[in-house]
Specification:
Layout: E1 4-10, E2 16-21, H1 24-33, E3 48-55, H2 58-69, H3 73-80, H4 84-91, H5 94-97
Helix pairs in contact: 3-4
């Protein structure tokens, strides 16, 4: 059975990179060795793996990758930290719940 990994890297400039691969160790080495000058992580090395999820269905993995790329930074941090209360609050509609989704600003 083939596995697909969706991952979040933290770059040296504190930005996040989200990707998908079927060979996580190889892909992390590629990011940190800077094989492609045009890649986002090339000038932001070293990168650190912050979150990883494994899938057997490639379509599901692609959908999760796309979903995460649309998330705010604070929502990604809540996922990385497994802070489910904040993740839920940050998912609420700003117009209905305010800027912080019912939580105080961090």
């Amino acid at each position: 059975m083939k596995f697909y990994y969706v991952y979040i890297l933290e770059c040296s400039d504190s930005s996040f990179y989200i990707g998908i691969t079927s060979h996580i160790e190889k892909r992390l080495n590629e990011h940190n060795h800077g094989l492609r000058r045009e890649s986002y992580t090339y000038s932001r090395r070293p990168v650190v793996l912050k979150w990883l999820e494994m899938f057997t269905n490639p379509e599901q993995a692609i959908a999760i990758e796309k979903q995460l790329k649309g998330w705010s930074r604070r929502k990604k941090i809540a996922l990385i930290n497994e802070d489910w209360d904040k993740l839920i609050a940050y998912s609420k509609n700003y117009t209905q719940y305010g800027k912080y989704g019912g939580l105080d600003a961090d």
